[in-house]
Amino acid sequence: MIIRRRGTAAAAIALLCTTTFAATATPATAAPGAPPGVSPDVTVAAGELALVRLQLPDTGMLDTLAARGADIAAQGRTPDGTLVADLVLTGTELGSLVARGAKPLQLIQREGDAARRYAQSRQVAAKAAAADTLKFLSAYWWATDGQTFLETRVATTAVSDPNVEITVTWQTADGTTGSFPLQRFEDAGEYQYHVAEPQPLPAQPVRVSATSSLGGTTRPVTPGAWPGATPPAPPSGYQKDFIDAYQAPMDIRARIARLARQYPDLVDVVDLPTRTQGYRRTATAYLGDPASAAVVVESVRFGDQGPNGWQVRAVDPGRPNRPAQASFRDRVLTVSLATDATSAVVSTTDQVAALIGARFPQRFTAFVEDGSAGKVMPVAGPTRMTDGLDAPAGVPHKPWTVQALRIGEHRDGSRMGVLAYSQEHAREWATPLVTLEFAERLLANHATDPETRSLLSQVEVFVIPTVNPDGANYSFNDAAFQRKNMSNHCTGALRDPRNADAWGVDVNRNYTVGSLFDGYVGGSANCLSGTYSGTAELSEAESNNVVALAAAHPNVKFAMNVHSYGGYFMWPPGAYAMPGRITLPRPSIEESTLFQASAKRIVGAISAGRGTVTWPARTGPVADVLYSAAGNSADQLYYELGIFAWDFEIGNDRWNPATSQWEGVGFQPPFPEAHAESQEYADGLTELLRVARDYAGQ
Ligand SMILES: [Zn+2]
C-alpha cells in the first residue's frame, strides 16, 4: 500500500487530534481563491510531507486509508455530499491517490512551513513589545512680534534607550504641516523627557502628534495657548522706567536712602542683622619666583587693615654658618637665609615658610608655592603685599550692612507679606535693577494709581536689592564673572592668590534645607568651585540675612528670588539626593496648582512688556526644569518657613529671526537689554503682589 505512517507515536497523536468536519464546512471556504469545482494547483514534491485537503471518490478509499494507518487529520462530507479528508502525506503518496480518483482541493500546509511560521510569530511579538508608548507632557504655542512658536515635551516609556528618536508633527488651520525632532533630556543620568527649543511656525498650530523611532505614536492633541493669562494694562499716567544704568552696591545704597527720604510714609529701611565680611581680602606677596621657587606670604589681617603695602624680602647674610632669621621692621618683613660654611644659602622654601609663621603668628602666615617644596629659597624682594582689590577709593572695604526696603501703607505685619530679593549671585547685574524698579514703581504710583494704592494697603513688601554686595563689588571692579561672596575658606596652597577669582561661597548653596551637608546634589565642598556651599549650613552672613528677614516677619507668605539669566520660572523642590534622584518632598496637589497657576499669571505679566515669553519647559520645579541646587534659599523659605518661594532667572533667550536661533543674553548684557529685563520682570513682581493679594482674599 502506498500510504505509510512515519512512526507510530506521531500517528497516534495525529489520530487523537482528528476531528470531524462540521456539517457547514465546505471545500470552497477552505480553499479561498479556487474556483468552485476546479482543483487548485496542488504541487507537493515526492519526498515532501504536506497536509492536503482531498476530495475522495468513495468511502472505500477512506476506509482503506484508515485501515492502513494513514494520517487522517480530518474527514467529513460537505452539504452536497462530497467526501473530504485532510491527509498528511508525501508528494508520492498524493500522486498515487490522485491516480486513483482523489482530487486535491487545498494545500493546507507544507511541513516546512512550520519553522518559518514560528520564527515569524516571534518577530511580530518582539516588534510589538519593542514599540514604546509616547505621551505629551505639554504642548503650547504663543506668538511674539508676529512670530508663532510651538514648544512640546514628550515622554517615552523607553526610558533606558538613549537612541530613541521622537519627531513632532504639527498642523495649522489651513492644513500646513511640518515636523521637528525632540532631544532627549537627562538629569543626573536619569531620563526626564524629550524636548526641543520653541520652534517657529507660520501660524497657530491646531494639532500636534508625535512618533518615535521605536514605533510609538501619540494621538493628535491640540496645543494650548501659553501662558494664557494677561494682566490688566496699567492706566495712563502709570510711572515706570526708573533705571537708567547698572547699579553697583554703592548706587543701591544711595537709592535706598533716597527712597526712604522721598516716601517716609510708605517705606522703612531695614538693616539686616549680620554684617558681611566686606569687600576685602588679606594681603599677599610671592617671595621668590613662582615659576621656580617661592613662598607665598599672607597677612593675617585684611589688606585694608594695614598690610597693603607691607614688603617682604629674603636676603643673603653674606657670611658663613648663619642661622635663618626673620624680622619685621618699618613695614618690611625680612628673612635672612641660613648659610653653610662656604657662605652658600641653604634655607629651603619649607623652612622659610615655617619660620615666618612661627616668628610672627599675629601678622603672617606663609606656605610654599605649588611646585616649590624642598627647593633652596632664593634671595628675593622686596615685594609689596597687596589684597589685589581694584575698586576705586569710594568703594568701602568695611563690613557691609545689607539693607531691605519695607514698603506698604501698613508696615506692621498685619498684611500679607511678599519678599523679593536679588543678587545672591554677584555677577547677575540685571537682577537688582528688577527689584529696584519694582520698588520705585510702587512708591511713585501710590499717590496716583488706585491699583497701586490698593496693593499697598493690602500687602506688605520686603525688597532686598542686593543680597551679596561684597561679591557684587568684586564683580564690578575686579572679576566680572564673580558669582560668590568674598569669604575665602580655602586652606593651605589653595590660598595662592592665583586662585583669587575662584574664592568665595555660593550664597544660594549655603542654606539648611536639602543642603550639601544633608547629602543633596548641586553644591560643592571644593572652596574653588562655583557652587561651593561654605564650611557649614548658614556659614555666611548673606544667607543668614535672608533667613532672618523672612523669619522675623511671619506674614511673609510669598517670595521671589531673582537670578539671571536664561528665562526660568521655578519653585520647589530645588534639590535631590543621589542615588535615586530623590527630591525634597513634592508640594501637595493644591500647592502645586497654586504654583503653576500663579506662574502662568506672572509669566503673562512679564510677556506684556516686549513679548518675552518664559518657555513652558522652563516653568516648573527647579529639580525638573533646571538641575539640583542643594541648599538654595527658595527651598529654605518653602520648607522651613512655609513661604511660597519662587525663583526667576531673568534674561530670557532672544529669538533672532535673521539666524532663526535663540540667543543667550548673559549676566551683564548691553545696558538696553538689562533695562528691558528690569521693566518686564518688575511687571512680573507686581503681578506677584496681585497673586498674594488674591490669596489673602480667598
Ligand atoms: Zn544666580
Written description of the protein model:
By secondary structure, the protein is α+β, with helices and mostly antiparallel strands. 26% of the residues lie in helices and 28% in strands. It contains 15 helices and 32 strands. Strands 6, 7, 8, 9, 10, 11, 12 and 13 form an eight-stranded mixed sheet that branches. Strands 14-22-24-23-25-30-26-29 form an eight-stranded mixed sheet, sandwiched between helices. Strands 1-3-4-2-5 form a five-stranded mixed sheet. β9 and β10 form a beta hairpin. α11 packs parallel to α14. The radius of gyration is 41 Å and the shape is flat. The N terminus is likely disordered. The structure holds zinc ion. Zinc ion binds next to loops.
The main sheet comes to:
8 strands, mixed
Q: Whole-Å distance between the termini?
A: 98 Å
Strand content: 25-35%
How would you describe the oligomerization state of the chains in this entry?
single chain
Rg over alpha carbons: 41 Å
- Distinct small-molecule ligands in the complex: zinc ion
Q: Uncertain segments of ≥5 residues (pLDDT<50)?
A: 1-38
Short account of what is shown:
With 698 residues, the protein is an alpha+beta fold. Helices cover 26% and strands 28% of the residues.
